[in-house]
Specification:
heterodimer, A: 221 residues, alpha/beta, four-stranded parallel β-sheet, three-stranded antiparallel β-sheet, 7 helices, 7 strands, elongated, B: 294 residues, eight-stranded parallel beta barrel
Chain lengths: 221, 294
């Protein structure tokens, strides 16, 4: 899933300077799961803003809604007509959702209320860890299901760097060294030969930005 | 004329290398003084590459100055700041300048240095830089394109003999050997018995191993390294020896310890040579060599 975190309140409030009618649109998929921009967080931000502006003696109308998936056109078409009369729409979706919203509601001003951070998983409630860089050339089959591109701070493919220290990373002693994890996992699997070979430099062409893919069935449409 | 580093390695002599750091800025007076002091006392002088992720004068220009001054430069190249295009381009440039020895490194992470917000590159890691060197020598770049004139290098790498866990470190060491590393400069070693065990393993390979000697300047520095520097373990007896140095005599004590270790490594044939890192105290390297009887 995509992991995001809400921008600081003051930053969001500053972006709304001069607006009279604001709509806050959340997304009930990834950013809802990571408690950054789902229905609850939309309600919370809207309340915070109303209270804060009221305290400042400013009259701003703030309305809210949350769509199932802000990065998907079908879901977005259900909500677009609600946005007609607003000066500005604050999106609490990931960067992809914000952009689809901007494309579909041009030329209305759209502002992001979250910072999109990474593709991650939830090892325990309330914690998210980055586990995929979307590099487009997956090596997990060879590295015991632990991604060196993501979990290693340097994303190196051929074993630990000189900064590895008792299984921890030179960047942050709280973080595990990916290559120690990979080594230990493959040792248990009896698959250490997987990493005895030299991995070539990564092919960044497969990740050439902005990436696009069209399903075979939809080609030619 | 200075003997090339490759020839020095082949000579069978005990090899000594030391390290010079380029300045932050364009005043190269001190760097030149260090080069001048050391160039005739060692077989090769490493020029660090934005060491500790701190932006400085480039290692390539530093090496050029060593060369101009009649020394033997060892070009440190990390993959942190340059992608494969820039690294290969710099390797070709080095060769044109007569710099023919290169040490291939992954590089410290950018967040450890003085430009923490910069983009870390890491397009190639140490092993892949070694392979890039060998590719260029074959007359082709990493894209498979033919070169107009191929360079030739003596290529080396690093290893941490006291890494914990050691197994993945040794696995990577073997990959570097297979990729054509001719010499290794190790992370600092202090426990020579532990280092001997590493050499029992590493000595089986057809590469030259230069033991890393980092000058201790105080007991506090030794303790700090034990706590904060990956792969460095200063045994308690050496920490105590530093702590027991008379007031104002810690540096001298460190010089004696370094000299004693080098002497033992040479006399007992523990390694093929040493790589002295007197971080910030380059002027005492001749004293270390004297203490070692070299």
């Amino acid at each position: 899933m995509i992991v995001a975190e809400r921008k600081p309140f003051d930053e969001i409030k500053t972006m709304l300077a001069g607006c009279r009618k604001v709509f806050i649109l959340g997304c009930d998929t990834c950013v809802s799961v990571c408690m950054a921009g789902g229905k609850k967080e939309v309600g919370l931000l809207a309340s915070q803003l109303r209270m804060s502006f009221k305290k400042d003696g400013r009259d701003i109308q703030i309305d809210e809604d949350t769509v199932e998936r802000q990065c998907n056109r079908e879901y977005m078409e259900l909500v677009l007509n609600k946005l007609q009369d607003y000066d500005l729409v604050v999106s609490m979706a990931c960067g992809a959702g914000v952009q689809l919203l901007a494309d579909l509601s041009e030329p209305r001003q759209i502002l992001p209320a979250v910072n999109t951070r990474f593709i991650g998983m939830t090892p325990q409630d309330g914690t998210w860890e980055e586990r995929c860089r979307a590099c487009g050339d997956c090596v997990l089959g060879e590295t015991g299901g632990i991604c060196p591109v993501t979990v290693c701070a340097k994303g190196i493919l051929n074993g630990p760097c000189g900064g590895t220290d008792h299984g921890k990373c030179e960047v942050d002693k709280e973080k595990d060294c990916a290559w120690t994890l990979i080594y230990r996992r493959l040792e248990k699997m009896g698959k250490l030969d997987n990493i005895r070979k030299a991995f070539p430099p990564r092919n960044h062409l497969v990740q050439c930005h902005p990436a696009k893919q069209v399903h075979e069935v939809y080609k030619g449409e | 004329m200075a003997v090339s580093f490759k020839d020095a390695l082949r000579s069978g002599n005990f090899i000594v290398t030391a390290e010079v750091g380029p300045p932050k800025g364009i005043d190269i007076t001190e760097m030149k003084a260090h080069i001048s002091l050391l160039k005739d006392k060692v077989h090769g002088l490493n020029m660090t590459d934005n060491q500790s992720s701190v932006m400085r004068l480039s290692s390539l220009v530093g090496c050029h100055i060593i060369k101009e001054m009649g020394g033997v430069p060892i070009l440190q190249m990390t993959g942190r700041d340059r992608n494969r295009m820039a690294l290969q381009s710099d390797l070709l440039s080095a060769s044109v300048l007569g710099i023919d020895t290169v040490l291939c490194l992954t590089g410290d992470h950018i967040t450890l240095g003085d430009h923490k917000e910069a983009k870390p590159v890491h397009d190639l890691e140490s092993l892949q830089i070694l392979k890039a060197v060998r590719a260029l020598e074959s007359g082709k770049d990493l894209g498979g394109n033919a070169l107009k004139g191929a360079p030739h290098f003596c290529a080396g790498a690093v290893v941490t003999p006291e890494a914990d866990p050691i197994e993945p470190q040794l696995m990577k060491f073997e990959k570097k050997v297979r990729a054509g590393a001719e010499f290794f400069q190790t992370q600092a070693v202090y426990d020579l018995e532990a280092f001997k065990r590493f050499m029992d393993y590493a000595g089986k390979f057809d590469v030259k191993i230069l033991a890393g000697i980092v000058l201790l300047t105080s007991a506090r520095m030794a303790t700090y390294m034990n706590q904060h520097v990956a792969g460095i373990y200063v045994p308690d007896n050496l920490v105590a020896e530093m702590a027991g140095a008379p007031k104002g005599g810690a540096l001298q004590q460190g010089i004696e310890i370094a000299g004693r270790m080098i002497r033992k490594i040479k006399e007992e044939g523990i390694a093929h040579g040493v790589h002295i890192m007197a971080i910030g105290k380059e002027t005492v390297v001749p004293d270390i060599l004297q203490a070692a009887g070299l």
